[in-house]
Each structure stands twice: as structure tokens, then as C-alpha cells.
Amino acid sequence: MRLFSVISALMKLSSSNSAGDSEPPVKIIVAVARNRVIGRDGRLPWSIPEDWQHFLDSTEGGTLVAGRRCVDELVDTGALADGRRRVFKVSTTQKGPDCFSDFPSALEAAKECGRPVWICGGERIYGEAMPIADELVLTLVDVDFEGDTYFPPWKDEFPCLLSERKSQHGEIPLYFRVYRRDGVKEAPKCV
Ligand SMILES: NC(=O)c1ccc[n+]([C@@H]2O[C@H](COP(=O)([O-])OP(=O)(O)OC[C@H]3O[C@@H](n4cnc5c(N)ncnc54)[C@H](OP(=O)(O)O)[C@@H]3O)[C@@H](O)[C@H]2O)c1
Q: Residues with Cβ < 8 Å from 91, sequence gap 6 or more?
């Protein structure tokens, strides 16, 4: 009888440690100018189709967490129309089933969906997510832009560049990067 209890306890322990019970990854996704500008007048300061497609491809099938203004922009661009991504909004002035008055509550609800969680801004949300996200998926739009919304400095939180792909939008160099907060600091893989 005692042997049976031990085996049963071991089985429970092993199943609770299985990958199926682990939390989904939390990733920040952003496109940032060299001077860390990300927005102007409630919109992106640029129109770069390759980066927009990168955003859509990366977030497909995931759960998004974003501030009220970002959600408005996502709705306006049609990014939510195909139903391939669900969004949880952070707002103190609006109410609704997918609306939360603070970032931690929105994040917990998003994690419960069991799909990768994508933190989509804006400025305050990025600031709150920076210490807790697992990964940073960042497009460096490598020129200065005028703007009113900024991404926080990220290199202390995410010192490890995992991969980098270079591209070009007209005269503007683009770097599609993935950073982790831990791991081996080494030269990026250029793909
Ligand atoms: N380049 C990029 O990758 C990128 C990504 C995202 C955004 N953007 C740009 O950034 C701008 C939008 O960002 P934003 O910072 O201005 O606005 P935002 O975060 O999208 O929206 C601001 C509103 O969200 C709510 N909110 C945000 N953080 C909150 C918090 N921690 N707790 C409670 N409520 C919170 C508040 O809504 P209430 O007033 O209703 O309480 C606040 O007024 C746009 O220009 C957009 O294009 C760029």
C-alpha cells in the first residue's frame, strides 16, 4: 500500500512538471527608432510594410496585451479583424470583458489563455513589462524620428542578442532582433 502511495505521488509530481503545465512565454514586441521614439500623435511615426508584416506574423495565434491607445490603433489598422489574435486592453476609463484597469491583471488573464503573450505597448505598458518579460522582439529602425512616445532603454534588462536580420526600407536600415535577458552573450546569428 505504501509503495502504491509513493508511486502515485511520483507520478503526480512528474505530470505537474510536464511542459503542458508551464506558463506561456511573455514577449515584448516593438519597433523603435535610434532615438527610442515609437509613436507620434497616437500613430506609428513610419509606414514600413516589412515591419508590419513581421508584427502580424510574430503575434499570430497569440494573446496581446496593450494600452487603450494601442488597441484603438490595432482596431483601426484591421490587425484584429481576422480573429487570429486576441487582445486584452489596459484602461482605467473603459470597461469590458477583455479590459483591465492595471497591467498585472491583464497579463495574468492573458497567460491563462495558454498561448504566447505579446506585450504591444505603449510606453507605460512597456515599462511595466520590461522587468518580467522573457524575450524582446525588437525592430531597430535605425534613424532618428520625431515623436512623443518612447521605448525604455532595454540593454540592461535584455543584454543577450540571440539573432539579428538586417534589411532596408528605402534609405532606412532595419535590424530585426531577438533579445533574451539571460544566456550566452555572443555575436548575433545573422540570418
Ligand atoms: N513602434 C511600436 O512598436 C509601437 C508599439 C506600441 C505603440 N506605439 C505607439 O505608441 C503610441 C501609443 O502608446 P501610448 O503610450 O501613448 O498609449 P497606450 O499605452 O497605448 O494607451 C494609453 C492609455 O492606456 C491605459 N494605460 C496604459 N498603461 C496603463 C497602466 N499601466 N495602467 C492603467 N492604464 C494604463 C490608459 O488608458 P485610460 O486613459 O483609459 O485609463 C492610458 O491613457 C502610439 O503613437 C503608437 O503608434 C508604437
A: 67, 68, 99, 100, 101
d(CA 39, ligand 1 centre) in Å:
10
pTM, 2 dp: 0.89
Q: Whose CA is nearest to atom 9 of ligand 1?
A: 39
CA of 96 to the centre of ligand 1 (A): 17
- Write the pLDDT tens digit of every residue in 136-187: 999 999 999 999 999 999 999 999 999 999 999 999 999 999 999 886 555 5
Cell of 25: 512565454
Task: Please identify, by atom number, the ligand 1 atom nearest to the C-alpha of residue 121.
Answer: 6
Best residue for ligand 1 mutational test, from 48, 50, 101, 149 (most atoms within 8 Å of Cβ): 149
Q: Which residues contact 43 (CB under 8 A, 6 or more apart)?
A: 73
Give bridge partners of residue 138 from the DSSP assignment: 30, 177
The C-alpha atoms of residue 17 and residue 117 are separated, in whole angstroms, by 21
Query: Class assignment of domain 24-190?
Result: alpha beta
Protein residues with CB under 6 Å of any ligand 1 atom: 30-31, 38-40, 42-44, 66-70, 73, 90-94, 102-103, 120-125, 128, 149
152 DSSP assignment: P
